Amino acid sequence: MDNGQERRKKTVAESTTEQVHLIMQQHLNGSGRLFGGALMQWLDEVAGVVAMRHAETHRVVTAAVDNLQFKQAIYEGEILVLRGYVTYVGKSSMEVEIDTYTELPDGMRQTVNRAFFVMVAVDENERPTQVPELLITTEAEKARNEAAKMRRSMRKQRRENGF
């Protein structure tokens, strides 16, 4: 910060967000499966909420979406769960991982998608603004943070190469 104060730190748990959807007819494509655009909208919403909670602001923008992989189809009547959390924080940017599952009747969850969003906190003039640092508290969070650093480096390389 400009006044010499140390940045506040927030844990992953403080901004973790879970969203649940019952898949209905209006969510399906012509093949009777979940429309990818509907899932993209929900993923972006979850990423936004996670970023808003971490950054302590309602002003966040989506800067990038990485690694959107559909591992299995999702059908009408299934329960879809999206769980998002911060994996990395820069000065104004945050990487948000969102894991998507179908929830079986016994409560077990099957992974159907994993996505990574880069979100940026902005001020009233749409300029990037500083966010709290990320406080890593578990070995799993540390591993996700290390992987996020590698993805950040790859994103930088792609930008430099014109991708």
Automatic annotation (TrEMBL):
Protein EC: 3.1.2.20
SUPFAM superfamilies for this protein: Thioesterase/thiol ester dehydrase-isomerase (SSF54637)
Stretches assigned to the HotDog ACOT-type domain: 13-125
Pfam families: 4HBT
Keyword line: Hydrolase
Entry-linked Gene3D superfamilies: Hotdog Thioesterase
GO MF annotations, alphabetized: fatty acyl-CoA hydrolase activity
Domain of life: Bacteria
PROSITE patterns the record matches: HOTDOG_ACOT
Family, as annotated: Belongs to the acyl coenzyme A hydrolase family.
Name of protein: Acyl-CoA thioesterase
